[in-house]
C-alpha cells in the first residue's frame, strides 16, 4: 500500500482464542491496538462493530481456486473416474486467460464468505497471483507439478516452479507467497519430489502436496515400495515444519509419530473427502497427537463451493459422529483449525486478533434470525452461521468487503468473465 | 385467503423431477399452468424468473421450531447429558409467550432459507399454530406427549393433543394440520402409544414419533422387551403409511422389511445425528428398500440452524463417505428427499412444481459468485447453494419473501422478541 491508512472497528465482540468486547485499531497492515479506550478520532475510517462478531479472516489451507470454472463437473463420480473422464480433459484446455477468470471469481466468493488467506495449487499461477494482487486477498501459490515419472516432463515442471518463484514470490506487499507444489506421491517421481524439497529449502518456501487421500493410493504405494505415503516421503527427507500435506485421510499410527516429530501440518478437507468417498480423516487423533491440523475446501468440483463456514461445521460434526462422541472437536478447537492452525501451517503472521498481527479481519452480522439468540458467539459462528453472514472483510489492512459489497472486485464483471470462460471448457 | 390472487413467474429455470425453462402461473393457492406461452397480462403480480432457479418449497420433516430460543445451549455434549442437564431444565420454564416468540423467529429463518412446510413436535403448539397462521408458512404440528409411564400424566397428554386437534387442525386455509406426536418409545408407555395411534386413526392424522435415534435406546428396549424399536411399535399396530419416524439411525434389516411393508416414512436428520454423535442413518439402504425417506433439521440446539440447503448437502455427502461410494445418493435423489418425499410423508399436495399442486415455490438467485457457472442447476442447488441464496418464497399462493425481504413477518420485531424471550430461559 502506498499511503498509511488507519481503521477503527468500534465496540465489537472479538472472537479469537477467547471472547471479549473491545475496539480494534488497525494502522497500515497491522493490528496496532485492542482496547476499550479507543476513540473515533484515532482513525481515518471507523466501522461500527456493535451487533457484529469480529474474528480473524479464515485460512483455507488447500484449494485449486481456478477450478471454479469446473463447478458441477463430474458430480457423484468416483475420484479416479472423476479425474480421468471429467476433470483432466477439461483442464487440458485451460490457458492463462481462463485461469485468471476462474481465480477472480473464486476470490469474489472467498472474500464474501470471510476467507482472507488461501493456499493454492494449480496451473498458470502467475495469473492467480495477478488476481490476488488486484483483489487484495492473501495467497500462497504453488504450481502443481506432475511428471508422471517422465524425465523431460520433470525438468519442465521444475522450471515452471522456478519461474513462478522468480515472477511472483513475495509480491503484492507480501500478500503473494509462492510454495513448491509437487502434486502427489503417485503422480510425481522420486526425483521430482526430492528436487522439489531442495528448491523449497533453497528459497525457504512451504511445500504443498496431496498425501494419503484415498485407500487405493496407500495400497498401491505399499505394493510398490513397502512403505506408506508419509513413510516414503520421510525416507526422501521431504517432511518438516514447512510441509503442508492435504487430506491425510488414511494416516497410520506410525505415520502419526512421524508427522508429530517432523512438525508437518495437515490440511483437512471434509467436503471433498466425503463427496469423493475418499474416507474420514482422523482429525481428532491428529489433535491428540499434537499435530497441527487446519482446514481446506479443496477445489469446487469436489465440494462445490469455497465456503469455510460450511467446512468448519462439517469438520466438527464429522469427527463427532466418527468417534461416536459428541465432545470430540468442540467449537473452539474447530475454530482454531480454520484460523490460527492454518496461519501456522502457512507461516503467516495472521489467524488471530492480537496486537502485532496482520490486519486480516472479518465482521459477521449477528442480527439475522438464524444467529439469534447469541448465547455464545463462538457456537453461533461454528454451528449456526452461513458464509453469507460475513458483512465486512479487511485483509492486510485494506477494506475488501463493506456491507457485503466487494470493493476491490467488480462482481458483475467477475461473474460475466467466468461464465464466458467456463463455456470454453 | 379472502380474494383470488394470481402470480406469474416469468421465464425461469424450473427444477423439479426434471429441469425445464418455462413460466408458471399461480391462481389462488394452486399452480394453474406451466408453459412458455404465458404473458404478463395473465396475472396481477409478475415475478422475473430469469437468472433464478425456481424449485418447490423445501419440506422440513422433523423440527422443534420454538427451540430457536435454546440456540447454542449444551453444545458438544452427549445426547443424555444434553437433554437432562441443559435442555429439559430450560424447557421446564417455557410458556405460551416464549413458544410464540421462538416459533416466529424460526419461521423468519425457515422462510428466508426456502422452507415452506415443516413438521413440528413441541409444547404450547397452539402458539406455533398462531405463528404459522400469521407468517403464511405451512406446518404439521404435534404436541410432544411424554408420560414417563405415569397414568395420570398420560391422560393429561392425550387431553392436550385432543385440545390441539380441536383448536388448530385444518385451520389457516389448511396450512395448519395437526399430527399426533408421542415423543418416543422410551419416554411413552405402551398405553400412550396405543391411544395415540387410535386418536390419529379416528381423525385421520399423521403420527410423528422419534424412533431408533441412539444405540443406547435400542439396547435398552431389547433388554426390556426383546424387541427392536420398530418391531415393538409394529406389535402394537402403530406403523402404517401415516407414521413419520424421525431419525431411524439404528434400523435393522428386519425392521427395513417392516417399514417397507407398512409404508412408514423416515425423517433423516444428519446434522443432529452427527452433532449428538447418535450415528449415521442407513439412508441409501432405505432408498434401495423403497422406503420413503425425507429430511429434517431437528431443533436448533442440535444443529444449530434450520437451513435445509445445508441439510441436503450433508445428507448426500454423509451417505457417500459412509458407503465409500461417490455414486451413492446422487443430487436428484437428495433433492427428492427434501421436496416430494417430504410432501409424501406428510400427505400434503406439495413438493413438486406441477399443474394442480399447491403453490409452494422458492426462487434461488443464481447470479452470485458461488453459483457460477450454472452447468447443472440441480448440482448448484445441492452442492453449491447457501440457504441465503433464496430470493423469493411463495407458500399457498401467497408471497412471503421478495428480494430477500420478509413480507408477512416483521423481522426486526421477531428478533427483538426472541432475544427477550431467550433471556428468560
From TrEMBL, chains A, B:
Note, other: SAH is a product of SAM methyltransferases and is known to be a feedback inhibitor of these enzymes. As a result of this inhibition, organisms have evolved efficient enzymes to metabolize SAH via different pathways. The pathway found in methanogens differs from the canonical pathway, it uses the deamination of S-adenosyl-L-homocysteine to form S-inosyl-L-homocysteine for the regeneration of SAM from S-adenosyl-L-homocysteine. 5'-deoxyadenosine is a radical SAM enzyme reaction product which strongly inhibits radical SAM enzymes.
Pathway listed: Amino-acid biosynthesis; S-adenosyl-L-methionine biosynthesis
Keyword line: Hydrolase, Metal-binding, Zinc
GO terms for biological process, alphabetical: S-adenosylmethionine biosynthetic process
Catalytic activity reported: S-methyl-5'-thioadenosine + H2O + H(+) = S-methyl-5'-thioinosine + NH4(+); adenosine + H2O + H(+) = inosine + NH4(+); S-adenosyl-L-homocysteine + H2O + H(+) = S-inosyl-L-homocysteine + NH4(+); 5'-deoxyadenosine + H2O + H(+) = 5'-deoxyinosine + NH4(+)
Cofactor dependence: Zn(2+)
NCBIfam families registered for this protein in UniProt: PRK06038.1
Record Gene3D superfamilies: Metal-dependent hydrolases, Urease, subunit C, domain 1
Enzyme class name: hydrolase
Role played: Catalyzes the deamination of three SAM-derived enzymatic products, namely 5'-deoxyadenosine, S-adenosyl-L-homocysteine, and 5'-methylthioadenosine, to produce the inosine analogs. Can also deaminate adenosine. The preferred substrate for this enzyme is 5'-deoxyadenosine, but all these substrates are efficiently deaminated. Likely functions in a S-adenosyl-L-methionine (SAM) recycling pathway from S-adenosyl-L-homocysteine (SAH) produced from SAM-dependent methylation reactions.
Subunit structure: Homotetramer.
Binding residues for Zn(2+): 62, 64, 210, 298
Binding of substrate, residues: 91, 183, 213, 298
UniProt domain Amidohydrolase-related: residue ranges: 54-399
Record family assignment: Belongs to the metallo-dependent hydrolases superfamily. MTA/SAH deaminase family.
Name of the coding gene: dadD
PANTHER family per record: AMIDOHYDROLASE-RELATED DOMAIN-CONTAINING PROTEIN (PTHR43794:SF11), AMINOHYDROLASE SSNA-RELATED (PTHR43794)
Protein known as: 5'-deoxyadenosine deaminase
InterPro entries: Amidohydro-rel, Deaminase_MtaD/DadD, Metal-dep_hydrolase_composite, Metal_Hydrolase, MTA/SAH_deaminase
EC code(s) of this entry: 3.5.4.41, 3.5.4.31, 3.5.4.4, 3.5.4.28
Top-level taxonomic group: Archaea
Membrane as UniProt keyword: no
Textual note on the cofactor: Binds 1 zinc ion per subunit.
GO function terms (MF aspect): 5'-deoxyadenosine deaminase activity; 5'-methylthioadenosine deaminase activity; adenosine deaminase activity; metal ion binding; S-adenosylhomocysteine deaminase activity
Amino acid at each position: 500500500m502506498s499511503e498509511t491508512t488507519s481503521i477503527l472497528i468500534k465496540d465489537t465482540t472479538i472472537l479469537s482464542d477467547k471472547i471479549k468486547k473491545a475496539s480494534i485499531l488497525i494502522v497500515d497492515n497491522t493490528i496496532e491496538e485492542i482496547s476499550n479506550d479507543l476513540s473515533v478520532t484515532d482513525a481515518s475510517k471507523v466501522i461500527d462493530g456493535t451487533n457484529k462478531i469480529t474474528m480473524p479472516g479464515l485460512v483455507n489451507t488447500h484449494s485449486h481456486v481456478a477450478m471454479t470454472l469446473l463447478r458441477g463437473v463430474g458430480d457423484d463420480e468416483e475420484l479416479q473416474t472423476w479425474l480421468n473422464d471429467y476433470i483432466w480433459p477439461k483442464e487440458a484446455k485451460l490457458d492463462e486467460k481462463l485461469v485468471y477468470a476462474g481465480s477472480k471469481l473464486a476470490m469474489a466468493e472467498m472474500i464474501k464468505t470471510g476467507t482472507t488467506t488461501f493456499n493454492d495449487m494449480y496451473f498458470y499461477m502467475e495469473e492467480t497471483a495477478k488476481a490476488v494482487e488486484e483483489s487484495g486477498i492473501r495467497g500462497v501459490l504453488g504450481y502443481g507439478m506432475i511428471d508422471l515419472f517422465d524425465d523431460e516432463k520433470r525438468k519442465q515442471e521444475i522450471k515452471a516452479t522456478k519461474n513462478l518463484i522468480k515472477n511472483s514470490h513475495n509480491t503484492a506487499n507480501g500478500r503473494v507467497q509462492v510454495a513448491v507444489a509437487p502434486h502427489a506421491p503417485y503422480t510425481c517421481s522420486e526425483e521430482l519430489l526430492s528436487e522439489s524439497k531442495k528448491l523449497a529449502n533453497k528459497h525457504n518456501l512451504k511445500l504443498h502436496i496431496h498425501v494419503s487421500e484415498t485407500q487405493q493410493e496407500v495400497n498401491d504405494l505399499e505394493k510398490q515400495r513397502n512403505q506408506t505415503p508419509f513413510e516414503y516421503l520421510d525416507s526422501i527427507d521431504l517432511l518438516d515444519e514447512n510441509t503442508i500435506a492435504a487430506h491425510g485421510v488414511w494416516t497410520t499410527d506410525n505415520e502419526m509419530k512421524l508427522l508429530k516429530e517432523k512438525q508437518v501440518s495437515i490440511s483437512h478437507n471434509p467436503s471433498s473427502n466425503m463427496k469423493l468417498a475418499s474416507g474420514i480423516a482422523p482429525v481428532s487423533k491428529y489433535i491428540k497427537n499434537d499435530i497441527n491440523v487446519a482446514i481446506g475446501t479443496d477445489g469446487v468440483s469436489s465440494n462445490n463451493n469455497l465456503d469455510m463456514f460450511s467446512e468448519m461445521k462439517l469438520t466438527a460434526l464429522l469427527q463427532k459422529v466418527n468417534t461416536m462422541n459428541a465432545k470430540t472437536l468442540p467449537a473452539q478447537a474447530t475454530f482454531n483449525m480454520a484460523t490460527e492452525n492454518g496461519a501456522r501451517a502457512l507461516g503467516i503472521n495472521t489467524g488471530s486478533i492480537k496486537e502485532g498481527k496482520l490486519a486480516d479481519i472479518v465482521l459477521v452480522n449477528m442480527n439475522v434470525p438464524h444467529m439469534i439468540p447469541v448465547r455464545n458467539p463462538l457456537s453461533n459462528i461454528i454451528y449456526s452461521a452461513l458464509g453469507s453472514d460475513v458483512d465486512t472483510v479487511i485483509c492486510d489492512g485494506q477494506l475488501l468487503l463493506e456491507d457485503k459489497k466487494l470493493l476491490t472486485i467488480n462482481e458483475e464483471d467477475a461473474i460475466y468473465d467466468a461464465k464466458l470462460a467456463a463455456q470454453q471448457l
